[in-house]
């Protein structure tokens, strides 16, 4: 039996990982919204983020390979184009439209509308038979959809164009996370480690989003004094610097999610995501001046009830089912983080996780 000191250490570790996840997740939301006030090229910004993510994930893979001495997985062109491309395209459009919407809507409306992604994830999980049909899912759908309707009803800061973009991004997000789960659970591909998944997704995401960027922003950006027609060096360096910060935050978000799931569980990430949305709305009202009435807050509360019910149902049914191919074992070396451990901590790490027999389910957060 673990002593109180071990429980305290695990608790502090979990709190620290959750706070790290909050910093990157909430930080990139507010940062992108702030950046869009002066830099009106969200698709180009997304392309820069993808390029930075690819470089950082490549460096991380190289460091992990040097630490473990084992070569990282590299997919064949056939598997890469046939099995990774659909996930990459859905992910690119999801992120691109989400960033694009910041030109039109508030952070609170964005946060609330993106919560509807749970509905689309449920739908596509049923289509791909990743979820089993359950009557309680109807209640989850009703709670989330009615909460979203109440939140947007008579909203003084409602923008139809931005709302449509986020709703479409949520729809694509349902496809994205469902395909990502399928992709990471195919053992023959060897993409169980999210860093490897990020590395393989970024190039195709870049290529998938680039035509939309050329059509919508290419001509405007080429004649803009923000980048290509600068008369002084300082504005160019400022633009590059601000875009690089956003790319680093995007990579930090993906890595912090991986860190939180691998060191705790996907349930912790899901519950943390619920409270993160509450924090985001409170900060949006306090810092950005987002206006929300009583009906809007009530709709938000109802939506959170639906998301909480969904998390609870997944937890209940996963505990009553045996191990399946849809789960990753938390003892897998692919989920260990050697870069974050000192040499003398390896034995403590192994002893701690030998006592744990919980299966780690891939999060559809």
TrEMBL record:
Residues 15-309 form the Sugar phosphate transporter domain. It comes from the Eukaryota. Signal peptide: none annotated. The chain crosses the membrane at residues 12-33, 39-59, 103-128, 135-153, 159-179, 199-216, 236-255, 267-288, 294-317. Keywords: Membrane, Transmembrane, Transmembrane helix. It is found in: Membrane. Its main location: membrane. GO terms for cellular component: membrane. It is a multi-pass membrane protein. This is Solute carrier family 35 member C2.
């Amino acid at each position: 039996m673990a002593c109180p000191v071990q429980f305290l250490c695990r608790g502090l570790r979990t709190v620290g990982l959750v706070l790290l996840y909050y910093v990157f997740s909430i930080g990139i939301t507010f940062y992108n919204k702030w950046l869009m006030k002066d830099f009106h090229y969200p698709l180009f910004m997304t392309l820069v983020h993808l390029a930075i993510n690819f470089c950082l994930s490549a460096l991380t893979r190289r460091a992990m390979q040097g630490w473990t001495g084992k070569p990282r997985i590299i997919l064949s062109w056939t598997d890469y184009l046939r099995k990774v491309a659909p996930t990459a395209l859905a992910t690119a459009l999801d992120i691109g439209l989400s960033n694009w919407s910041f030109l039109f809507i508030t952070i609170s409306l964005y946060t609330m509308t993106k919560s509807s992604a749970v509905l689309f994830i449920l739908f596509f999980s049923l289509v791909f038979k990743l979820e089993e049909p359950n009557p309680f899912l109807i209640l989850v759908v009703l709670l989330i959809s009615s909460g979203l309707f109440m939140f947007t009803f008579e909203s003084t800061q409602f923008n139809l164009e931005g709302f449509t973009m986020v709703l479409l991004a949520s729809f694509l997000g349902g496809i994205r996370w469902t395909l990502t789960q399928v992709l990471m659970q195919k053992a023959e591909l060897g993409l169980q480690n999210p860093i490897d998944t990020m590395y393989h997704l970024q190039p195709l995401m870049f290529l998938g989003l680039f035509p939309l960027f050329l059509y919508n922003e290419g001509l405007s950006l080429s004649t803009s004094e923000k980048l290509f027609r600068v008369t002084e060096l300082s504005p160019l360096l400022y633009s590059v610097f601000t875009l690089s910060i956003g790319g680093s935050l995007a990579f930090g978000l993906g890595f912090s999610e991986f860190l939180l799931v691998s060191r705790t569980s996907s349930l912790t990430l899901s519950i943390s995501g619920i409270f993160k949305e509450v924090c985001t709305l409170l900060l949006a009202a306090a810092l950005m001046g987002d206006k929300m009435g009583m009906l809007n807050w009530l709709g938000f509360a109802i939506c959170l009830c639906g998301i909480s019910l969904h998390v609870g149902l997944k937890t209940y049914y996963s505990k009553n089912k045996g191990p399946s191919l849809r789960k990753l074992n938390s003892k897998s070396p692919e989920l260990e983080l050697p870069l974050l451990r000192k040499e003398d901590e390896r034995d403590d790490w192994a002893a701690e996780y030998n006592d744990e027999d919980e299966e780690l389910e891939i999060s559809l957060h």
